[in-house]
Amino acid sequence: MSTPPKASRPIVAVSGLHRGENPQPGPAVVAGLRRRFPDIRIVGLSYDPMESGQYTAGIDRIDAAYLVPYPRVGHRELLERIDAIRKDDPFNVVIPCLDSELPNYIKLRPELDKRGIACMLPSEQSFAQRGKENLFGLCQRLKVPVPATIASNDPNELARFVERIGYPAYIKGRFYEAHLVHSLYELHSAFNELIGTWGGPVIAQEITVGEEYDIVGLGDGKGAIEGSCSIRKMQRTKSGKGFAGIVVEDPTLDELARKVIRALRWYGPFELEFIKAPGRPHQLFEMNPRFPAWVDFPSQIGCNLPARLLERLQGMKPTPLKSCSAGQMFVRHCVDVVGDIADLAQMASTGHRPGPAASIVERG
Q: What confidence tens digit (pLDDT) does each residue in 205-235 have?
């Protein structure tokens, strides 16, 4: 959790650049950084030449993009690629925006420190405790309401659990994806797909029908929350992503968040996802170890968490974070990003492309 010496001009690397129907957080993080530091240099770390955030030219623009190996390849290969990229773009801050990346970055923490690369990362223990396979046990210890959950590498064990709690139920991948299953056949099909994609264990979780609430925040590593914003989801995509939300003031939610972050001594960004069924308390069903895709919304109403993260890592004087007022809302707005096929070809063939020359055209 050491902080490198303050840099004269930070160069920030950001991942998770896709902004499709299942949006990733990277472009929202970039937008938040540019709202506070408009001339900062931002480097995109991409897994696919088609990630749309590489080609935007607005407030979420990046100055250069580089392909990196998929997380499943391992941390050593990631470090080799980081070293190669820094020969051209010597970034000294990295903000990983995908759950599956965090294990590699946590393993690389000593190597990042040696290279003067600052990053807000939870401890390996904290990261594991909030994992989908361990969250139920953590919440039980903390007396935080949580849906009944089990994790296993054995589909028959999951099936027995679901038989007890009743269908339908969620079958979830270790990092991503959730399938709502209504039968034993669907359970086995979902299990095979998820374990093949994300590895084990696979999680089975009781379904609770109600309103969904999210909290985005930044933990200081000592048990406190530096800033946060709570919303109720008003619209969701098919994959459950918030497409519209409204700020809520709920002391119960705030206290549950403080309890979890205090216990984990969480260091860095987080998102807590709750569900509230009529007549039942808020249940914490997921904790994501990064900013959500809607993090630029609070940035626009005075609670700029990506900027606070950078200020902390660079030893800057922190800009005050405002409380998000209840009733403020966002609705995601889709745009078409226009570029040239030469940009895509360069990224695909060389793994590197300089700043975007794209423009943004709203859908008619």
A: 998 889 999 999 999 999 999 999 999 999 8
- Contacting residues for 225 by C-beta, under 8 A, at least 6 apart: 217, 218, 219, 257, 258, 261
Task: Report which of 61, 113, 52 is spatially closest to residue 82, judged by C-alpha positions.
Answer: 113
User: Helix, strand, coil shares of the chain as percentages rounded to 5?
Assistant: 35, 25, 40
SS3 annotation, 316-338: CCCCCCCCCCCCCEEECCCEEEE
Q: Which domains, ranges and CATH numbers included, belong to the chain?
A: 11-119+335-362 (3.40.50.20), 148-206 (3.30.1490.20), 209-331 (3.30.470.20)
State the Cα–Cα distance between residues 237 and 52, nearest whole angstrom.
Answer: 18
User: Which residues neighbour 154 within 8 Å (Cβ) at sequence distance 6 or greater?
Assistant: none
What is the spatial order of strands in the sheet that 178-181 belongs to?
Answer: 149-152, 202-206, 169-172, 178-181
- pLDDT tens-digit map of 277-333: 888 899 999 999 999 999 999 999 999 999 999 999 999 999 999 999 999 999 988
Establish whether the linkage from the previous residue to 168 is cis, with ω within 30° of 0. Answer: yes
- Contact at 8 Å (CB) between 174 and 131? yes
pTM here is 0.89
Let me know how long the chain is: 364
